[in-house]
UniProtKB/TrEMBL annotation, chain A:
This is Copper chaperone PCu(A)C. PANTHER family: BLR7088 PROTEIN (PTHR36302), COPPER CHAPERONE PCU(A)C (PTHR36302:SF1). Coiled coil: none annotated. It comes from the Bacteria. InterPro entries: LpqE-like, Lxx211020-like, PCuAC_sf. It holds the Pfam family PCuAC. Signal peptide: none annotated.
From TrEMBL, chain B:
The keyword Metal-binding applies. Disulfide bonds join C67-C71. Residues 1-20 form the signal peptide. It comes from Wenzhouxiangella sediminis. This is SCO family protein. One of its GO terms (molecular function) is metal ion binding. Keywords: Copper, Disulfide bond, Metal-binding, Signal. Residues 29-196 form the Thioredoxin domain. The lineage of its organism: Bacteria, Pseudomonadati, Pseudomonadota, Gammaproteobacteria, Chromatiales.
Length: 153, 201
């Protein structure tokens, strides 16, 4: 009986310690959900979308994006003015994500503009895009995006 | 007898109020802008006028293919809305994508682009003079931003979809804030009214 309760105690302590460690140090300082590239035919640029969460206790800034699958990648925001005209605003200062905050790259808002695909892409394919950050170590993260149909959101 | 009369009056009032606010999700432009008229180059390479739509209602969007975000988003919503319509109405509506970027959007580029959304979407573009004539007619503008080092440039354009009836009369402006269900409701209402008028004729 004594041995059994000793074993239970040790297991409970170990589990507690593991939980504490996991809680102290999030597995990843930043989290990128649902990364996707919307396929556009005819060699026109495509948009990349994802949700970016900063789990650290200080701000991080997304400052660059690059991919071997594309000639050039830019960080853009679509802006619709009061008169209904739409334009794209280049995000010269990158995109700041505050401590614990989430920023969504989504249709008609922030997006990666992916210029000149270097090869023919297909729906369902995986494309690697390297995102560069300030305030994060290491500064670069390789994210696997899924190619989705142009008619998806 | 009295409750019946009350009910009838209530019904009439309901009917009247429904007429007063026309019940569109988009913005009604009926009678505010001139009928559809243009000369443009189609994705087939042919020069066409508004008669290319052969007397069918048209949903028209002004954009450009090097527009990765809002153009595909809006066109995809329009196509999704059309798919929600009853089958016979789907066949009736013509979709049109007018590129205000003729420098990059040749016929083949337009054909590839519009086919990705719907086989019922016709790509059109034209000279600056032709495009200005059409956009001015519907009180909208477009413009080009400075070229970047790599030669690419940005284009500003209207974010609304213009809907014309079978006679080419402007009916609705579907603003970019509308969702698929709202667009579908407006299109169904517009096309159903047309079917009703045809039956009465």
């Amino acid at each position: 009986m004594k041995i059994l309760s000793g074993v239970v105690l040790v297991i409970a302590l170990l589990a507690g310690a593991l939980w504490w460690v996991a809680d102290m140090q999030p597995a990843e300082p930043i989290e990128i959900d649902n990364p996707r590239v919307r396929l556009v035919p005819g060699g026109a640029p495509m948009a990349g979308y994802f949700t970016l969460t900063n789990h650290t206790d200080s701000p991080v800034r997304l400052v660059s994006a690059a991919s071997e699958a594309f000639d050039h990648v830019m960080i853009h925001r679509t802006v619709v003015s009061a008169d209904g005209n739409a334009r794209m605003a280049h995000q010269d200062d990158g995109v700041l994500v505050g401590a614990g905050e989430t920023v969504e790259f989504k249709p008609k808002g922030l997006h990666l503009m992916l210029m000149r695909a270097q090869r023919e892409l297909e729906v369902g394919e995986a494309v690697e895009i390297v995102l560069g950050f300030e305030g994060l170590e290491p500064a670069e993260r390789t994210v696997v995006f899924t190619v989705v149909p142009v008619t998806s959101s | 007898m009295k409750p019946v009369r009350l009910a009838l009056t209530a019904l009439m009032l309901l009917g009247l109020s429904a007429c007063a606010d026309q019940g569109w999700n988009g913005k009604s432009i009926e009678g505010l802008m001139p009928e559809l008229e243009f000369e443009l180059t189609a994705e087939t390479g042919e020069t066409v006028t508004e008669s290319v739509f052969a007397g069918r209602p048209v949903a028209m969007y002004f954009g450009f293919t090097h527009c990765p975000d809002i153009c595909p988003t809006t066109l995809a919503r329009l196509v999704a809305a059309v798919r929600r319509l009853p089958e016979p109405l789907q066949e009736e509506l013509q979709l049109a994508f007018v590129s205000v970027d003729p420098g990059r959007d040749g016929p083949q580029q337009l054909a590839d682009y519009t086919d990705a959304f719907s086989e019922r979407m016709l790509g059109l573009t034209g000279t600056q003079r032709q495009l200005k004539a059409l956009t001015r007619r519907y009180r909208t503008t477009y413009g080009y931003e400075d070229e970047r080092a790599d030669g690419s440039y940005n284009v500003s354009h209207s974010s609304a979809i213009f809907v014309f009836d079978a006679a080419g009369e402007p009916q609705l402006m579907l603003l970019d804030s509308l969702g698929v269900a709202e667009i579908a409701a407006d299109l169904e209402k517009l096309l159903a009214e047309r079917a009703e008028n045809a039956d009465n004729a």
